[in-house]
Amino acid sequence: MSPPVIATRSAPAATVQQLVADGVHPLLARLYAARGVTRVRDVASDFGQLAGMDTMLNLRTMARLLAEAVLAGKRLLIVADYDADGATACAVGLRALRTLERTRATWPRTASSTATV
User: Is-above-0.70 flag for pTM?
Assistant: First the structure.
């Protein structure tokens, strides 16, 4: 196994300066600029940039079906990818279902298994 390589990426100075002027920490400004971020709103952590609920196809229908399944005590299966967003989505889903106290949740044990709630 070869040792890890740390690559230094170039970052447009003007973009870094603008991000810093907009309140971004200088180190984060350089990292963001090196990855193509040019505006603070592109990395905003508030909910203002999220798509509206009515723009998500079938969201209300799926929410109703999930609520009905939980109330009926049906078994649910969460299938998630084994990458950062998939694991996060699975963890959030399991935590949410556990808080309903109507479900039993288990975490996957192997890359080929899924979580049963």
Answer: no
